[in-house]
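Section 5.1 Outputs to date
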Amino acid sequence: MLYTLMHRELPVAVLDMNPTNGSINGVKEILAAEHLPIQVRHDSLFIAADLDKWFSGRAIPASRSGFRQNLEDLELQRGIELSSGKLLMECYGLSLSDQYWVSPVDAPLNWKKINFYDNPFSEDVGNFLFGQIVERGILDLVSPCNTSDGWLKKKWKIIDGQRILIKGGSGVFSQEPFNEAVASAICRRLNIPHIEYSLLWENGVPYSACPNMTNNRQDLVSAFSIYSSGKKPNHLSPFDYFIACCEQLGIPGVRRFLSQMLALDFLICNQDRHFGNFGAIRDAVTLEWLGMAPVYDSGTSLWQDKLTPDIHARADAAAKPFRNTHGKQLELVAKDLDWLDFSALQGLQEEIYTIYEKARFGEPNRAAVLSRAVATRCELLQDRVREFSPQKVSIQDICQNATARAMEINAQHSKTEDATPKKTEPEI
């Protein structure tokens, strides 16, 4: 079946697609090559395969927590067989992250009437993804939940007119929602552009909630797409190559952003900052790059999968995406940390404790241990910055060093005076 790949209201390409699972079998015509997803090259012999990989990546991943069980339950309850590909086509690939979608050639659709930014959508899909029984007679499967990425449970809701993403936790502690709130608190203090996360409770279960970061003419383009827009030369590191890709595309502010993101990840020991968990914002109409996207998706951090006795704040931790530890990643941005204001972190430990104390971890001291651990990471970061830039010390440090030096000089003078023989008057 023929579909038109659309970018907002602009036809981009005519595709031969499977309407059941969304697979792309061939490309019939390219209509606007400059509006193709940036990792898809229109002159490539593998353009159909590249488009198929990109489009299938918009579907709910098979690794989503509880997803397979949700589908099985729905089939048992309602006799409905669904797959991630089927759900993808039910909403024509529409998303709340970008402006791409597909429209049947024989029955064209109107973007203004069906996009999720300006039109209401059903909560049926979101509810059954959260394991809730949908009582409606006929399910409405047209939802932006069908194109949500990531392995944690998540759903979109409209609250007070805003598109809000609600995301759950995992494991025995379900700590990720609290971690998102902690990351937001740190970003606020350090003036790091970020998506603000808050805590939301439903039926006694904690979730994080955040507003959508794009509007109806913006694309969130993942770092993976940016990284895949060319071929990395052997002589460039992944870090340098990513910066080169951004500069080639014309994305502003990449170095400062990376220094902010990696400093944050150092503080929270983020384990999962892969190339799908950051990106850039582009105007979908003009194709102008507006800058790097604000920091988001920082929940898989802060030892969320560790028992409290196993939390070691001073130990270096595994990291992504440029180096394998946070210490090594921080070295990549050593020259770009002059924006850090450690005085803004005063009182952070207490603020973090108030966030974690709301949790039901089952370990009475976990909130205190976590808040102290973040304070320790702040000290470590300050120590590393001093190593990178010895001249960058605080006024307090200067005063303390001057006082210590003055005391040292006075002590030396006293010793010298004590060791000097006293002059006596000669006898007459």
